[in-house]
Amino acid sequence: MSYTTEQLLEFLDRELRATWKGERVVLSSADRIDNPVLSKAIGTDKLSKVFAIQDFRAQIHDYQHQHGVSGLVWHTCRFRERSIRVPELHPQLIAIPADKAALAAARPAILEFWRASVTGLRLWLAGHDPQPTTLAAVEDRMAASEWAELSATREELYLSLCWGDPKDCHCDWAKPESGCDRIIATAGEPSGIKV
Fold first, then answer.
1. Which sign does the torsion angle of CA 54, 63, 90, 128 carry?
2. In sequence order, what are the beta bridge partners of 184?
3. Which of 110, 123, 118 is nearest to 161 (CA)?
């Protein structure tokens, strides 16, 4: 029987704590950086910790692939009096092929929740300088997305319309193959919280 997503996250958490306590050492860490000046400036101890975590995380990712263990975690998104359970890729794990299908399967319910929740709110396209947008423009972006992610604060509802690789979609360098368009729904102007 293989480990569950929750167990893998517990293993990662324990390993992270042990590494930062100095209980894990990678003796070859200085050899992994081609720049000896940079290696010396950062310090062997810090490099050892970073590479120990990277090595362990790579083992977890290999395990996920070999045993088909999902990288998705589920959480409840609440906005006003409404709530919905939504999946998202945990930042320490990878998405297996079934995860992208699960994200896509949750998309209709997420979009329905979002549409029902934004009545009377102003819509903004997130970015360094958020730009006002229209429901029609958001609907066009929805049609082009493969899956949707949802989060909220007390006053703002955040919709991410994603495509491509779930691990890279939040990185600007991955565009145009992978990406996310982020929409903010709020009564006034966006608060400036990073989404």
1. positive
2. 124, 158
3. 110
Q: Which residue has the tokens 């979609």?
A: 169
Q: Which distant-in-sequence residues (6+ apart) come within 8 Å of 152 by Cβ?
A: 77, 78, 79, 158
Write out the two tokens for 89.
């890729």
Rg (CA), the chain: 20
* 6-44 pLDDT per residue, tens: 999 998 898 888 877 776 665 455 555 555 555 555 555
Tokens 């919709």 label which residue? Answer: 159
Tokens of 97: 């092929």
Q: How far apart are CA 93 and CA 96, in angstroms?
A: 9
- Distance, in Å, from the CA atom of 62 to the CA atom of 16, rounded to the nearest integer, reads 18
Cis peptide before 176 (omega within 30 of 0): yes
Cα–Cα distance between 163 and 104 in angstroms, integer?
10
Burial (CB count <10 Å: 0-12, 13-18, 19+), residue 109: middle
Residue 50: name the closest of 81, 79, 20, 71 by CA: 20
Q: How far apart are CA 38 and CA 7, in angstroms?
A: 36
Instruction: Give the C-alpha separation, 71 to 8, whole Å.
Output: 9
Dihedral through CA 160, CA 163, CA 165, CA 167, nearest 10?
Answer: 0
Average pLDDT value for residue range 54-79: 93
